[in-house]
Amino acid sequence: MRKLALDLGSKSCGFAITDYFEIIPSGLENFIYTEGQFDEVLNRIEYWLNQYKNEIDGLVIGYPLKISGEKSQTTLMVEVFIELIKTKFNLPIVLINEQYSTKRAQETLMSAGLNNKKRKQFKDKLAAVFILQDYLDYYKK
């Protein structure tokens, strides 16, 4: 079965998915939404669930903590979003510390020679791939 990963930001959400055997993560999209309108992201999750029929059996969500382990404003936003997910979907949710996932994505895209506009198009999707790879590395050893 597949896992769908999300890297939620205030105005965009990166999506990534594993292959059926949960070995390889692949980026799906960098979804732009109206700030604070989580229903748009919930609808996009539903879209991906429909695209992959009954193959997705769980969500992996980036959970942003400070280096100290404390919660940030973004952490609180993600927690609100997770509660909304729980009311709409009956899927297990795994939280992965996403510390540095966006920074890693930015560095990867910069080293690939992409300009700022292109990096912006791909960074959240790639961050979701890194979150999903971290999940696979930890849980699928």
Can you offer a commentary on this structure?
By secondary structure, this protein is an alpha/beta fold. It has a single domain, classed as 2-Layer Sandwich (Nucleotidyltransferase, domain 5), CATH 3.30.420.140. Helix content is 46%, strand content 25%. It has helices at 38-51, 73-88, 101-111, 116-139; strands at 2-8, 12-18, 25-32, 56-63, 93-97. α3 (101-111) crosses α4. The radius of gyration is 14 Å and the shape is globular. 33% of the residues are buried. The model has no long low-confidence stretch (mean pLDDT 90).
How do the strands and helices of this protein lay out in sequence?
Blueprint: E1 2-8, E2 12-18, E3 25-32, H1 38-51, E4 56-63, H2 73-88, E5 93-97, H3 101-111, H4 116-139
Parallel strand pairs: 1-4, 4-5
Antiparallel strand pairs: 1-2, 2-3
Helix pairs in contact: 3-4
| Number of extended strands | 5
- What percent strand? 15-25%
Order of helices and strands: EEEHEHEHH
Return the structural class.
Answer: alpha/beta
Distance between the termini: 16 Å
Task: Indicate the CATH topology.
Answer: Nucleotidyltransferase, domain 5
| Envelope shape | globular
Q: How many structural domains are formed by the residues?
A: 1
The name of the CATH superfamily reads YqgF/RNase H-like domain
Across the major sheet, the strand order is 3-2-1-4-5
Helicity level:
40-55%
Name of the CATH class? Alpha Beta
Computed Rg: 14 Å
CATH architecture: 2-Layer Sandwich
Q: Helix count, per DSSP? A: 4
Runs in which pLDDT lies below 50 for 5 or more consecutive residues are none
Major beta-sheet overview: 5 strands, mixed
Mean pLDDT: 90
